[in-house]
UniProtKB/TrEMBL annotation:
The modification 4-aspartylphosphate is found at residue 53. GO terms for biological process: regulation of DNA-templated transcription. Residues 4-118 form the Response regulatory domain. This is DNA-binding response regulator. It comes from Flagellimonas nanhaiensis. The keyword Nuclease does not apply.
């Protein structure tokens, strides 16, 4: 399966060059030309690895990385930047970067480093597009493509429905607390987000209505349990 990479680079010439070179190396590349655009893309898609520039207009790479770690903590990223001072390198790693590459960089070295990181991620089971389709009762859950499949019918999931279902599946038949869900997916455990969570739980219950063996139980005051009768 082709690995999916998000390249976030505001320099038109460099962005085009790197994007085309990575595609030549059989990588599926999406190029975002600024941090805000990358933010929109991340809300609707998953990637095996993100390559981030730091100095960008509208939203810099450090700010974007902070958002990624809060909303998608398992989504790996590396920095590719001209900011080479020690304080910047340390900040990059403190934000959770797997690597910090300094410009200018040889394209072959970039590909070699990307492939090394992807190989390491696969061994730990964290490469997002390598995850198998998950069976939930009579449904198939394709988290990469944000959809459920049952009896040939496709049900599209929003980005937030997709993330919520992934969280519940990871804790299948066990309690997922309100706090854990909200901090992980909404980024904040407050009253209004709890109301929003309840709405999305209702959406998921509706999606699973074709299989009575699947239930999302509300444990009052504590959280939810995705129960699947075997």
């Amino acid at each position: 399966m082709m690995h999916k990479i998000l390249l976030v680079e505001d320099d038109e010439s460099l962005g085009y060059l790197l994007s085309e070179y990575l595609k030549m190396k059989s990588l599926d590349v999406v190029w975002a030309k600024n941090g805000k655009k990358a933010l929109e893309i991340i809300e609707h898609d998953l990637f095996d690895l993100i390559v981030l520039d730091v100095m960008m207009p509208q939203m810099d790479g450090f700010t974007l990385a902070t958002y990624i770690k809060k909303r998608h903590p398992d989504m790996p990223f590396i920095f590719l930047t001209a900011k080479s001072m020690k304080i910047d390198v340390l900040k990059g790693f403190s934000l959770g970067a797997m690597d910090y590459l300094k410009k200018p960089i040889d394209e072959e070295e970039l590909v070699t480093r990307i492939m090394a990181h992807l190989s390491r991620l696969e061994k730990t089971g964290l490469a997002s597009t390598q995850k198998e389709i998950i069976q939930i009762g009579n449904y198939e859950f394709d988290s990469r493509n944000h959809k459920l499949l049952i009896n040939g019918k496709e049900i599209r999931l929003t980005a937030r429905e997709n993330e919520l279902l992934k969280f519940l599946v990871q804790n299948k038949n066990n309690l997922s607390s309100h706090k854990d869900i909200l901090v992980r997916i909404w980024g904040n455990n407050d009253y209004f987000n709890r109301k929003s969570l309840n709405v999305f739980i209702t959406h998921l219950r509706k999606h699973f209505e074709h299989d009575p063996a699947i239930k999302i139980e509300n444990i009052h005051g504590r959280g939810f349990i995705l129960k699947v009768e075997e």
